[in-house]
Design goal:
By secondary structure, the protein is α/β, with parallel strands linked by helices. The chain has a single domain, classed as Rossmann fold, CATH 3.40.50.150. Helix content is 28%, strand content 27%. It starts with 17 loop residues before the first strand and ends with a strand.
Length: 277
């Protein structure tokens, strides 16, 4: 079985990285600290991470996921991913957040190791401890990935930016990319009352353009379910995603308190499997 950090490369020189005490180091002497929460700090200072999840967003997401509202989605993703990962394979979660979905996939794929990449140090503090067979590193997905060419068996991309060329490079020839995107029906009952951003109707077109020429779509599986949300759940749902960058926390709390409790809410996603073109 591969170790979680085996797929990583030094972002400064491209050599392989190996654990050295509480750090990762390369043969040329570059070193990157591993935080006590278990993630490697590969992202150098001076890089903008304005869109990264804040500490408040991560707390809200951890509470919402911990309540089990997306457990069915995690199970559906794991059921798709596990048969695609060979024994001893490596799963990369690009934009992993807290590592919730990566952990579910690794539970379903015994013997596989996982690597979580994200820009948010607050999310990585949880991702670094999400699973005993997973490692985590701070990185910006828009940049060339510090990952060995052809080293990844399954690449997860759940509600995260896409980098088609780099995703294709790091996947082995027979590997698979699994992308999860929300549909316009997702959280429809919450959007007007909570002031949430709508799901862009052109989202699927942007996904296609990002992956075109690098991947071919093998299949898409819909996942729809209803969940019962309390006022606290609704507040967390609004506070954990991109809408949180535009909403005042006190206003979110007031709006959530005015909702009927429990409130039946639709969750709706597309799970797509892509193969290298």
């Amino acid at each position: 079985m591969a170790e979680p950090f085996d797929a990583l490369l030094c972002p400064l020189c491209g050599d392989g990285l190996r654990p050295r005490a509480a750090a990762l180091g390369c043969p040329r002497g570059h070193s990157f600290d591993i935080a006590r929460q278990g993630y490697a700090g590969l992202l150098a200072g001076g890089v903008s991470t304005a869109s990264a999840d804040t500490a408040a967003m991560v707390r809200a997401r951890a509470a919402f996921l911990g309540a089990g509202h997306y457990a069915g989605l995690a199970d559906a993703l794991a059921a798709l991913a596990a048969p695609l990962c060979p024994p001893g394979g490596t799963v990369l979660d690009a934009g992993a957040g807290t590592g919730y979905y990566l952990s579910a996939v690794l539970d379903a794929a015994p013997g596989a190791s996982g690597l979580a990449l994200d820009t948010s140090k607050h999310a990585l503090r949880r991702a670094g401890r999400a699973h005993p067979r997973a490692g985590a590193a701070r990185w910006d997905l828009r940049r060339p990935l510090p990952v060995r060419t052809g080293s990844i068996d399954v690449l997860l991309n759940v509600f995260a930016p896409r980098n088609g060329g780099e995703f294709r490079r790091v996947l082995r020839p027979g590997g698979a990319l699994l992308v999860v995107t929300p549909t316009p029906r997702h959280l429809a009952e919450l959007r007007p009352s909570m002031g949430l951003l709508s799901v862009d109707a052109a989202k699927e077109d942007r996904l296609r353009r990002a992956l075109d020429g690098h991947f071919r779509l093998e299949r898409t599986t819909p996942y729809d379910a209803t969940v019962e949300l309390t006022a606290e759940d609704a507040e967390n749902a609004a506070s954990m995603g991109p809408s949180a960058h535009h909403l005042d926390p006190d206003e979110v709390r007031r709006r959530a308190a005015r909702l009927p409790s429990p409130l039946t809410v639709t969750t709706s996603f597309r799970l797509s499997v892509y193969r290298p073109a």
